[in-house]
Amino acid sequence: MTFVATDFWDAVGKTPLIRLRRASEETGCEILGKAEFMNPGGSVKDRAAIGILGEAVKRGLLTPFQPGTVVEGTAGNTGIGLALAANARGWKSVIVVPRTQSQEKLDFLRMIGADLRLVDPKPLADPGHYVNFSRRLAEEMGAVWANQFGNSANALAHETTTGVEIWEQTGGKVDAFTCSCGTGGTLHGTARALKAKKPGVKVVLADPHGSGLYSWVKTGTVSAEGNSITEGIGQASKVPAVLEGAPIDDAVRISDAEALEQCFSLLKEEGLSVGGSAGLNVAAAIRVAKDLGPGHTVVTVLCDGGARYQSKLFNPPWLRERGLPVPSWLA
Description:
With 331 residues, the chain is α/β, with parallel strands linked by helices. It is built from 12 helices and 10 strands. Its cofactor is pyridoxal 5'-phosphate.
């Protein structure tokens, strides 16, 4: 019988694994990307959105098709997932985003009816940081605060869906999983699911410059250096509560140039349009595959699509100003 999704919530997940030809040929391994850009809201964050809102319903904080409001601070994609999921259940959404995020994500949030609140970028310890601002706003409004960075429902959504899907889609033949972290929900939940089936699966955190999570895994201390153009991943000063306790075996640090090389290659050579975090993930998967040696299977996450970053990652003047490579067909 053909599967017919009942609504947005039912359509999230069940995304395919795509064999990444160039990366696989380069390493002698099978490198597979979980095509999360195929979720209805366009990113892996759709899973966290319905996991968090579903838990709010279980706790009686929200009731489908009854008045309700959800508030969240986000780099964009979680806000999009929450807004669409809220629309499908008759709730309002108030989304707080740093004004430095890509214009495409900001425009999309407005288009789908989110009450968008822009704030200046601030350090996490600052009361004006978008997460702190959203928490206070939720309290003032008497609304539900999604709290993606501290809500265990985030990781649980990936443990019960993403990890299970990867295990089933590979027939259990997965040797390593690598993923970047914003909240850490994708890595933590997926890692728990895979290690429950196969404890020897190697879990590797992929981190950009400007984030201290690489140092945290390697040394136990959060220490950041440099900076990155990637949006929504990495943490400079603090490990998100959702990531704490994750069964992580190792970490790799990936430069912007490496991540962009993969974004441009996937688009031009394999017809896959992905954002910067996906490019970073693929670069990390290649690094891990080379360390493991030929014959292994490495799975990573293609977090979202490239169209959300057209004004940045695919904008030659913007790239040149930062000394970054420009895709040949746009040069």
